[in-house]
Amino acid sequence: LRLCKGAVSMILDSLDDIHCLTDCTDKDRDFLQNILEDTQFHALLDKQDKVGIFTLR
Amino acid sequence: KLALRKQGEAHRALELLEDYHSKLIKPQDKQLRNAIERVIRIFKSRLFQALLDIQEFYEITLLDDSKSIQ
Element (H or E) spanning A27, and its range? Predict the structure, then answer.
């Protein structure tokens, strides 16, 4: 369970690394960080993890 | 419109994630690549789109007193 949230957390934790490894701009990184930290987005992730359709993969 | 802005943001996020995914090619990036794949699927999924629409519908109707659900 909590696979969706786990994946999002991992990306958030790695955003700075991704920023270094790829040639993305500060603006792109900040944008993605805002999206992935958005509370509504997390509410949707909670719903998805509850439904569990992504836990089968 | 809120709905259009949200869709635009989700689309842009998807583009960025796909770009990152294509650039993270080293073996040690595998776990991160898997996480990105998962989130790409979330963004792409119809359920996600549907939930987004439902959430926006409730937001708009709940925040707008002039509208009422028949």
Answer: helix A26-37
Q: What is the pTM of this model?
A: 0.74
**Cβ separation A21–B29 shorter than 8 A:** yes
Give dist(CA B3, CA B51) in Å, integer.
12
The proportion of chain B whose per-residue pLDDT surpasses 90, expressed as a percent, equals: 29
Q: Amino acid letter at A5?
A: K
Angle CA A12–A16–A22, to nearest 5: 110
- Whole-angstrom Cα Rg for chain A: 13
**ipTM strictly over 0.85?**
no
Closest Cβ opposite residue B16 in set A6, A28, A51: A28
- Of chain B residues 2-61, which have a CB less than 8 A from chain A? 9-10, 12-13, 16-17, 19-20, 23-24, 29, 31-32, 34-36, 38-39, 41-42, 47-48, 51-52, 55
